[in-house]
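Support case: D-ribose complex. Customer-provided input:
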Amino acid sequence: MKEKIGIASDHGGFDLKEVIRKDLTDKVDLIDLGTFSTESVDYPTVIGNACKDLLAGKVDRLILLCGTGIGASITANRYHGIRAALVHDEFTAEMSRRHNNSNAIVLGGRVLGVDLAKRIVDKWLVTDFEAGRHEKRINLIEEITKS
Ligand code: RB5
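Agent response - structure generated as follows:
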């Protein structure tokens, strides 16, 4: 079955979200989880809601953005089961899938150029988790927030 990808940002990531959303429209099954304008919103709320959607199975993976990517990243990684990777290049985007099984990629809308951001997302979308020895490490991470 085709993966469902959710995309969410605050106002700081809104412009880049729109660019990525338009770029991905014909490529993947994409759900826009907001925000829907440049009006100021609290990133923990909009990003947290997107994380809840992932954990509820409404989407399979998330593309998250805020101004720097930092607030979105800190927020997303508070949710048990979310493995959010804040990345600035294609290599770490790829490795976050291969070794860390990232189920969310986080981008800084005020940090990245448009072309680089698109390449990062494309790389992340097509890269699979390698499992094997990395599976155990992912499970060890999940143990930390279990209780
Ligand atoms: C919003 O001004 C900004 O603080 C937010 O987008 C993000 O960069 C926080 O980490």
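The pocket of D-ribose is lined by residues 10, 12, 43, 66-68, 70-71 (CB under 6 Å).

Case will auto-close in a few days if no follow-up is received.
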